[in-house]
Predict the structure.
Amino acid sequence: MKTQVAIIGAGPAGLILGQLLHKAGIDAVILEAHTPDYVLGRIRAGVLEQVAVDLLDEAGVGARMHAEGLPHNGIELLIGGVRHRIDFPGLTCGKQVMVYGQTELTKDLMEARAATGLATLYEAKQVSVHDFDSQRPRVRYLKDGTRHEIECDFIAGCDGFHGVCRASVPDTAIRNFERVYPFGWLGLLSETPPVFEELIYAKHERGFALCSMRSHTRSRYYLQVPLTEKVEDWSDARFWDELRLRLDAPANAALVTGPSIEKSIAPLRSFVAEPMRFGRMFLAGDAAHIVPPTGAKGLNLAASDVRYLSRAFIEFYAGSSAGIDHYSDRCLRRIWKAERFSWWMTKLLHSFPDTNPFDQKALEAELDYVVHSVAGRTTLAENYVGLPFED
């Protein structure tokens, strides 16, 4: 098989890239190790920056998002039992975010790809990438017991943190930066109405909590827990009881509990791989970076990467290599700003077991400045809604 771009991974990054390339008339094949149901079963982020919303519109898959998604004009910080609202439009010249579950976004992208008969090879096993430092990269895989090879111009590694693309780069050619946090998020998804119309970020002496949502009838809640905790030790009743302890009286009065649809513990880490280009192979999304979810940046950074990458490929086939030559630098400038913001939000709102008394007082002072200063609230708001692209 021959194609122009071989995309490894059918998560949002790979699917958005495939859709953008299709609209530009560039041939691409997507390979995915798992089944479509497995991909759709991943419970992930639900907050989209304005620039990500615009990109999905550009890709032609934004109709259901606009019909069913929930535009949000702010978030609430619950600190010491007192709420402080961060007004996005008022602080960022009218910008907002959209709450729309990653599962629904992925479904929209899958359906758009299927409707145009584009090739997505699910359950492609033993995927390997070859000769990406040459003019003729190749991808090999096993499908239904038969081995196949794809010849291509470029490889897009959208295959996640544990994928084969980054792992195939020689250690001497890549540098990894990582911070592992001493806690995780215990998340619960339930068919219950949200506790509030906007997200509530709660800083509490017992640990951080987040009240989020996927729709008007589906809620997502998180609790900071030690990494030693096991999800099977957390009954639904125990989760709801602990959440109540970390919320204020109005939230508790509005809280509707119910059986969990999904419950899991996700460890938190910050990770960046540099560079993101290796000859004719390019990393995008979680293959290149991970952020703690506090800043709602994971899915948005993936969208940012494929925006740059799709334009780079379009420029290349129009006769210019500038886009692919500058892809890594452009992405990394935006990535490190998002990494900084996510680390900063995590540091401010979580309880760290090794924080000394001086640092704790300094953090409390910083948080007090953020919520009571226009400049502080603006910094939070403009990062949360998404920084502009550097085209």
User: Anything to note?
Assistant: The chain has 13 helices and 20 strands.
